[in-house]
Amino acid sequence: MVFVDAAASGDAPYELRPLAPAADASTPVTVSRRQRCSTPTPAHRREPPPARLLAIRGHEFALGAPLSRAAAANLRAALTALTMDLREALARAGGQPLPA
Predict the structure, then answer these.
(1) For residues 86 and 57, which has the higher predicted lDDT (pLDDT)?
(2) What is the mean pLDDT of residues 65-83?
(3) Considering only 7-21, 43-57, 69-83, which range has the smallest mean pLDDT?
(4) How many folded domains does the chain comprise?
(5) Percent of all residues in the chain with a pLDDT value above 70, rounded to a whole number
(6) N or C terminus: which one in the chain shows less Cβ crowding within 10 Å?
(7) Which 8-state DSSP code applies to residue 57?
(8) CA-CA distance, 52 to 18, in Å (whole number)?
(9) Residue 97 lies in a domain
(10) Sign of the dihedral through C-alpha 53, 59, 62, 66
């Protein structure tokens, strides 16, 4: 599972990092959506699937601001890297190669 989000700070052009699950299912409502998604639900009592965050460095965050050239370049780099990462994971799992 990969969550994709724009980042106002951090490494450019992107950062792909693991998301750790919360310690238990009693996580308060004030936590972020990403943290809640990675928390085991009480009904299942199972560990959530491995999750990662693809944080793509943005530049303009004003409401209605268009995608900047720098952010578009970061997006292209992130998508290329994620595609390669998914191809490798699929190959390790013995799946059929993805079309180019």
Answers:
(1) 57
(2) 95
(3) 43-57
(4) 1
(5) 71
(6) C
(7) E
(8) 4
(9) no
(10) negative
